[in-house]
User: Which sequence fits this backbone?
């Protein structure tokens, strides 16, 4: 899959959408583009929209967790939005450590959270 | 047979010896009136009477019901003269009073002038064969009496060879309409195309028996859910010569089973309700014991509702749970975590004193899960979270 990762700038934040089947190559490209974009725009927050992923395995779960860690290292806050019920169950059953990952129902909610956090001047939460 | 009776003393003695050597048959000569004129060894063996006891007596004395035999024998002797031969069967009696079923052939003996001078009667004890026939007929009648089952006999290629009244009642086809046709006429188009009848026969030959359930088609095109048992019929050498297919209509039972399943699902649905009490606030009242099936149903149901209503707060009310053990607690925590991943915050409510003790004693880590004593308090907290979500959220995460 060589399609570019849909990415959108929204004020101080970046919205990244994960779609379709993720393989090693796609993941590498996503990580590269997201980190470069967050650094370049000096974004304060990043929303990772996974509502397009109907099924998540442990590989994809690790990809998400890694992406969150990279964004934080760049000084931005990451929030995952749009986790589907089946995906949520899978993540819990797999025991993927997502305790400290921020989540929101949808991109709108996630953006609201990010803005509120930012307006309160709170950066890292961990 | 008449012309073998040559009137010479030597020939006669030869024939006498031949008759005496026949011991499995009763070969006797009767005079023209039916009187017994010869009584060789075979005759003695069969009915145990000695020659002295029967010679000169009417042949009817050999029958179990002598009076009835009298009229019949007269008819049979006349028929033998007219047609040259008469076959007959009947119950005979032995000297000890026991009975046996005899099959006999009566043929006239013709004298030199061409007129009948007597008869030869060749009789055989066929009691065993008779009993087999009765047994066979009994089996057939038994099969015919089974009207709740369709009993069908197929040949090696699956062609219908016999069709019981039960089959008629079940599939509506008469025996005449099915005999000689392939059994696949009773199958659905799909099953016919995928070769199900042939596969069933192959499996029955391989395993000695094949049982299955599936749709079958009646003459009027309607379907019934059938339980089918297919067994191969083998000849003495072990070769498969055909099949017996016993079919039962289970449509009603299947309907009932499905009804029960539906009701069970409905009860399960009812037992894990999710209520929207406020905009973006759901309440999950957990009532009764949670087994793993109910628990996963509960999780799925809740997450679907979160997605559907875009709910931000979930109140998990456990006041209706009699006891919380490790499994139940772990399951509730998983549900809470899954809900959080979706973006919804959970509040526990209705924890009883003993439940609180149990949770801590079991060493269950509740993490950031907030708890309120009553549903009312929990709802107040939920509304506060919605109104001033940021402050509380931070407190929660840092906690």
Assistant:
């Amino acid at each position: 899959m060589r399609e570019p990762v849909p990415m959108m700038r929204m004020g101080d934040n970046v919205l990244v959408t994960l779609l379709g089947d993720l393989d090693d190559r796609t993941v590498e490209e996503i990580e590269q583009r997201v980190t470069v974009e967050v650094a370049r725009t000096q974004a304060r927050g990043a929303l990772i929209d996974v509502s397009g992923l109907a099924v998540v395995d442990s590989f994809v779960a690790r990809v998400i967790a890694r992406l969150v860690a990279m964004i934080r290292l760049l000084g931005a806050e990451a929030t995952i939005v749009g986790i589907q019920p089946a995906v949520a169950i899978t993540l819990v059953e797999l025991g993927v450590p997502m305790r400290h990952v921020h989540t929101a129902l949808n991109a709108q909610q996630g953006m609201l959270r990010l803005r509120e956090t930012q307006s309160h001047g709170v950066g890292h939460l961990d | 047979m008449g012309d073998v009776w040559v009137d010479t003393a030597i020939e006669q003695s030869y024939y006498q010896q031949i008759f005496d050597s026949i011991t499995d048959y009763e070969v006797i000569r009767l005079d023209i009136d039916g009187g017994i004129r010869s009584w060789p060894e075979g005759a003695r063996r069969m009915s145990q009477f000695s020659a002295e006891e029967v010679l000169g007596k009417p042949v009817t004395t050999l029958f179990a019901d002598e009076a009835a035999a009298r009229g019949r024998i007269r008819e049979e002797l006349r028929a033998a003269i007219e047609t040259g031969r008469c076959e007959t069967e009947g119950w005979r009696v032995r000297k000890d009073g026991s009975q046996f079923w005899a099959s006999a052939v009566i043929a006239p003996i013709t004298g030199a002038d061409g007129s009948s001078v007597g008869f030869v009667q060749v009789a055989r004890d066929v009691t065993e064969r008779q009993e087999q026939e009765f047994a066979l007929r009994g089996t057939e009648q038994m099969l015919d009496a089974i009207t709740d089952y369709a009993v069908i006999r197929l040949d090696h290629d699956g062609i219908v060879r016999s069709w019981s009244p039960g089959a008629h009642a079940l599939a509506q086809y008469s025996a005449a309409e099915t005999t000689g046709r392939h059994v696949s006429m009773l199958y659905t188009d799909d099953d016919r195309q995928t070769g199900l009848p042939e596969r069933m026969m192959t499996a029955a030959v391989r395993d000695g028996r094949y049982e299955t359930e599936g749709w079958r088609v009646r003459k009027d095109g309607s379907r019934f859910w059938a339980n089918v048992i297919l067994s191969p019929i083998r000849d003495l050498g072990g070769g498969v010569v055909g099949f017996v297919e016993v079919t039962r209509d289970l449509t009603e039972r299947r309907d009932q089973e499905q009804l029960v399943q539906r009701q069970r699902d409905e009860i399960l649905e009812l037992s894990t309700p999710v209520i929207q009490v406020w905009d973006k606030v759901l309440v999950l009242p957990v009532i009764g014991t949670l087994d793993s099936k109910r628990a996963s149903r509960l999780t799925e149901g809740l997450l679907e509702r979160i997605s559907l209503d875009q709910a931000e707060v979930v109140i998990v009310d456990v006041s209706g749970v009699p006891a919380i053990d490790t499994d139940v607690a772990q399951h509730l925590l998983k549900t809470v975590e899954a809900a959080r991943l979706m973006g919804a915050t959970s509040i526990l409510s209705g924890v009883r004193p003993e439940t609180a003790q149990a949770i801590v004693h079991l060493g269950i880590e509740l993490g950031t899960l907030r708890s309120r004593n009553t549903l009312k308090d929990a709802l107040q907290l939920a509304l506060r979270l919605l109104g001033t979500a940021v402050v509380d959220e931070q407190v929660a995460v840092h906690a």
